[in-house]
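In the design runs reported in the main text, the only information available to the sequence generator was the tokenized backbone. The following block is the verbatim input for one such run; it is reproduced so that readers can re-run the procedure and compare outputs position by position.
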């Protein structure tokens, strides 16, 4: 219906991957592909995929996506990858005049972030609504032993099934030997040492029964297990999923979170 760009299509539902590329988080992206495939059902649909097509991981990712969606036709812009030879493929001449640079793509994303955050309000969410992170999923631990091992002041510490989370008052250098020692002492696979400030600007996805939209973390109250999120979403929120991208001065950066 005279639609020339996906930006002209109103979102009905979605899946929050929390990242800008599937290359480092393909398993979660495939979860989203399956979810969207279920939503589409037997209806006709055009699915726009990423340009990640080269290398073993990209090949496996694309083939897994095809296995999930079972498309009738695959349209390829430019050269068709060899691993699609067994499928019904149409080669389409690309209309893109010049490939966008990394800086240009980042600038475009920055404008998009600004647009979808317009009219945002600050909302607070309790720990039981927070997902896709081990934060607030453990039991608080006595910091006496940790105080002996870590010089910086410990604000909050918790231990879960396979993780130890330690929140410090400010950033400090943590060596590999200390992390290894903490793994052995507490019997965990993952040790996360961070400050509350490092979560500021983290992009999160908000859900009710469906995907509602995104927001960014304004602050985290680790002692009371709460987060404050700036978001344009007004509906009731049942779930807040942490992403892996943090916004700072309109630019996005990968963030390491628990």
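Verbatim output:
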């Amino acid at each position: 219906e005279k639609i020339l760009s996906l930006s002209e299509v109103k979102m009905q539902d979605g899946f929050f991957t929390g990242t800008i590329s599937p290359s480092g988080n393909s398993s979660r992206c495939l979860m989203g592909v399956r979810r969207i495939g279920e939503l589409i059902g037997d209806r006709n649909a055009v699915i726009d995929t990423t340009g990640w097509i080269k290398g073993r991981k990209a090949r496996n990712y694309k083939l897994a996506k095809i296995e999930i969606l079972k498309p009738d036709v695959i349209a390829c812009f430019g050269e068709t990858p060899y691993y699609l030879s067994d499928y019904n493929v149409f080669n389409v001449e690309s209309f893109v005049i010049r490939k966008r640079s990394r800086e240009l793509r980042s600038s475009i994303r920055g404008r998009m972030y600004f647009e979808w955050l317009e009219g945002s309000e600050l909302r607070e969410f309790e720990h039981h609504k927070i997902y896709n992170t081990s934060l607030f999923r453990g039991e608080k631990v006595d910091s006496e032993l940790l105080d002996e091992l870590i010089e910086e002041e410990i604000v909050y510490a918790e231990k879960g099934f396979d993780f130890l989370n330690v929140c410090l008052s400010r950033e400090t250098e943590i060596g590999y030997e200390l992390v290894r020692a903490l793994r052995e002492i507490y019997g965990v696979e993952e040790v996360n040492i961070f400050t509350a400030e490092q979560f500021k600007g983290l992009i999160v996805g908000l859900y009710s029964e469906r995907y509602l939209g995104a927001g960014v973390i304004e602050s985290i109250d680790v002692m009371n297990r709460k987060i404050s999120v700036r978001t344009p979403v007004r509906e009731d929120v049942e779930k807040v999923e942490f992403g892996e991208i943090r916004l700072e001065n309109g630019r996005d950066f990968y963030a390491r979170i628990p």
